[in-house]
Amino acid sequence: KHIGCVCIWKNSRLKISTKRTDDSRPTNIFCIRGQFLTTKEKFHELLDSGVKCPNDDKASDNAVPKETTEDSLEEPQEKKFKVDPDEQERTRKRDSKRMRGQNKSRPHMKPTSYDNRRLCPSIIQERETKCVYGDKCKFIHDVAEYMALKPADVGEHCYLYDTFGKCHYGLSCRFARAHISADLKNLANEERVKAMEGRTPVRNSLDKDLQWRLRKKVVPFTASDAYMKTVFKGGHKAGEGWKKAATVSQENLALVKTIGPLTDADVIKLRQCEKKQCGNLPFRRICKRFGADITCGEMAMCTNLLQGQSSEWALLKRHESEDLFGVQVEGCFPDTMTRCAELLNNKIDVDFVDINSGCPIDLVYKKGGGCGLMTRTNKFEQIIRGMNSVLDVPLTVKIRTGVQEKANIAHKLIPEMKKWGVSMITLHGRSREQRYTKSADWDYINTCSQLASPIPLFGNGDILSYYDAMKARETEVSGIMLARGALIKPWVFTEIKERRDWDISSSERLDVLRDFTHYGLEHWGSDTQGLEKTRNFLLEWLSFMCRYIPVGLLEQVPQRINERPPYYMGRDYLESLMASQHVGDWIKISEMLLGPVPKNFNFLPKHKANAYK
């Protein structure tokens, strides 16, 4: 348990020798070297001034803080009335409860609101025929008028043009000067275009014909309907015929469709899982580049998929670099989940389908989905048996330890799920009530992995470093899944694979963010709408990434995922900027990569990160 590690990183400017001697340090105390520690006022003063030397304290004692100057110009506050202490305490508790979790009342600015006057697609795509809407078209048809209204270009080089040989966004591209001629024609690199012929970088798109048939409810679900006829109308248990077909004896467990348990000789499998708003396709490409073995899409609602919603089907898209990819679905009824599984089996290319029965949010739980399925075992059994009967790929399940904090039930469910026919189980070591405020229970995960054998069980929770992964590997899990850890530092996959700490520099981290913006522009588009959507997802990611503390600043490694760091100065200005948890500083980083924000830009992160106590 006591690991001593000496890490000499060849490509880093700083050679570090750090030792991890024990795990006895107090919770929520960061061992940051004294020369980097600072106060909140000095930290924000540095970022506002833009000074390049963070450790040189040149601030004058007579300097007036910026906040004081601004406050002196404001009108005095209104007179406050005396409030009953008991009422004030009740109000405080109610407000604090309301402010936990997600920013549900945050402003939702659609990317289309930043580009009200858009060019007609018929002109962007250079169609030979005129716009079918004629004078009733709501878009601009005058190219000169559009170019006068269009925001300034962001850069000199277009990633789409350099990669594919042609940018399909033409005049609307925010990097248009790289591929637009003097007579406003969209240029193409014929050699590059020819080299990309026949290649499909992204699969699992929703075609218009299937969307129309789903909306009209004319898609046949033959296998699903046949299964549902075997389920009792009372909805208590699955039909006996399907039970016998799906029940697997102990002698034949090896025949179950599984991804496969790992031996000691194998490298532990790393799975980057869903994280709504952040586990998107461009981010998964970053994770694959750093060494993730398995990727899983964001959670999709089965009812929305069956209705043909484009936004929900976008969560199923798969990039060509994702060699082992699965989709995750959520639902609470056997008929819709079975139909959804049959639809996915016939229409998209995946390696496994995952049931999210670990989602803790109220919207899902209160209608019986997510964690609610763990307490509705009859429905849970019908869902698993039904989906397994219509799928040609393995069916996996993600669960938590339970619903209540001190009432674990996963150990009771796992032997049953083995009988129901699941191929793999992922266990998050917290209950629904705990959310992310307590440490994951890896001892309980180890117990459950023994119960699940020989079916693979992946453990999940609090993996942020190589040390955490090695400690998890001491258990009998077949692999580990990362979610928050990958968002905070996606290079954690490289650290685990190479068994070392990576003191990654701020410039290298900025290059990672730049690659993400390139992938985002490829996925969402290089016009104003796509660019601002990329910026929004980048800012959501930065709300997690700002929690990372560089290894070279730590007195004692590793960083723990739930520890709240004090204010500290980085080794350069960019490193300090990346450590800020202020939205305005995240926007500064986005402007380095995607240009200035629109005048009416507004952003508030979805997650409040209440894991920090």
Automatic annotation (TrEMBL):
Enumerate the residue ranges forming zinc fingers (C3H1-type). Answer: 114-144, 157-182
- Signal sequence segment: none
- Spans of biased composition, class Basic and acidic residues? 76-92
What keywords would UniProt list here? Answer: Flavoprotein, FMN, Metal-binding, mRNA processing, NAD, NADP, Oxidoreductase, Repeat, tRNA processing, Zinc, Zinc-finger
The keyword Coiled coil is assigned to this record: no
* Pfam families in the cross-refs: Dus, zf-CCCH_DUS3L
Q: Name one GO biological process term.
A: mRNA processing
Ranges for the region named Disordered are: 54-117
SUPFAM superfamilies xrefs:
FMN-linked oxidoreductases
Q: Does this UniProt record's set of keywords contain Flavoprotein?
A: yes
Q: Which family does it belong to?
A: Belongs to the dus family. Dus3 subfamily.
Instruction: Outline what the protein does.
Output: Catalyzes the synthesis of dihydrouridine, a modified base, in various RNAs, such as tRNAs, mRNAs and some long non-coding RNAs (lncRNAs). Mainly modifies the uridine in position 47 (U47) in the D-loop of most cytoplasmic tRNAs. Also able to mediate the formation of dihydrouridine in some mRNAs, thereby regulating their translation.
Q: What is this protein called?
A: tRNA-dihydrouridine(47) synthase [NAD(P)(+)]
Q: Which organism is it from?
A: Oncorhynchus tshawytscha (Chinook salmon)
